[in-house]
Amino acid sequence: MAPASAFNEYSRTVCVMDASGSLGTTLVHRLLQRGYNVHAAVQNHGKLEYFEELSSCNSKKLRVFYSDPFDYHSIMDALKGCSGLFYSFEPPSDQPNYDEFMADVEVRAAHNVVEACAQTETIHKVVFTSSVTAVLWSNDRNKTSDDLDERNWSDINFCRKFKLWHAMSKALAEKTAWALAMDREINMVSINGGLIMSPDITIANPYLKGAAEMYEDGVFVTVDLSFIVDAHICVFEDVASYGRYLCFNHVINRNEDAVKLARILLPPSESPHPKRYLWASSFEDTSVHQQRISNKKLNKLMVDFDSEVQID
């Protein structure tokens, strides 16, 4: 459990939106384990039924809401009485893939949710889930020896030129959220996660567009689902957290790492030949690409959080 000081600072009631995906679902379970009351706001009707069954076992701790990020009133209903929001975007069921139009959708959703937080007096902190792809891409990505960190932003025109729709959407949505949060004086932090290694991950994940370049640049990173969930809770509970945090715990910069990842992402019937899937030239390749991305800021914050988990 979190120390008492954390609960003195923040109420025990928080909202997870969208709770439909692997990240949201796992966050709900983890928060319940840590003693929070949780409003699970879902878009997916199948998940709505799942959480309603779960709430029957946690009737005092869990409330379930159907919340559409384009329906302002449904957002307000889910936030009512909450002191914090964990927000992540799941593409609408009628537009499941990232394309050139997804940025408009994700930006509108982010704007609606942050504005709703501004209108909810009980909200003290927002944890906004973004992506490492909102950091990586620019014209000078190979021209500097400095590590990429939370100070970097993907260049929107570069993303548009090379059809990096996931990166463009994440960067525009996060910038929109930051601009509105600062204007409305909302206490917000962002988690810019690597490729999340959830049980349902596949080769079709939009994060993987540009994987060859990420691999060669030493910035192809992944994050275990449990680690990114703990990172979200850590930055929420720590009163000193601020700004953006790059979140990953694996760097794919060796051929054997690339082959291992391909085996996870591909169906068993397909051969994980790295050349076919862009991340290395051959199975015999022994070269190591120097890591050029840093998550020191988050790791520093997570040290005490990890010790709390171990003690409990």
Word description of this protein:
42% of the residues lie in helices and 15% in strands. With 312 residues, it is of the alpha/beta class. The strands form 2 sheets. It has a 7-stranded parallel sheet, sandwiched between helices. A 3-stranded mixed sheet has the order 7-8-10. Strand 4, helix 5 (102-118) and strand 5 (125-131) form a beta-alpha-beta unit. Helix 2 packs across helix 10 (225-237) and helix 5 (102-118) packs parallel to helix 8. The protein is globular and about 55 Å long. The N and C termini lie close together (6 Å). 44% of the residues are buried.
Shape field: globular
Element pattern in H and E? HEHEHEHEHEHHHEEHEHEEHH
Distance between the termini: 6 Å
Strand order of the largest sheet: 3-2-1-4-5-6-9
Task: Give the uncertain stretches in residue-range form.
Answer: 1-10, 307-312
**Describe the biggest sheet?**
7 strands, parallel
Q: What is the strand tally?
A: 10
Query: How would you classify the helix and strand content by structural class?
Result: alpha/beta
Short summary:
With 312 residues, the protein is of the alpha/beta class. It contains twelve helices and ten strands.
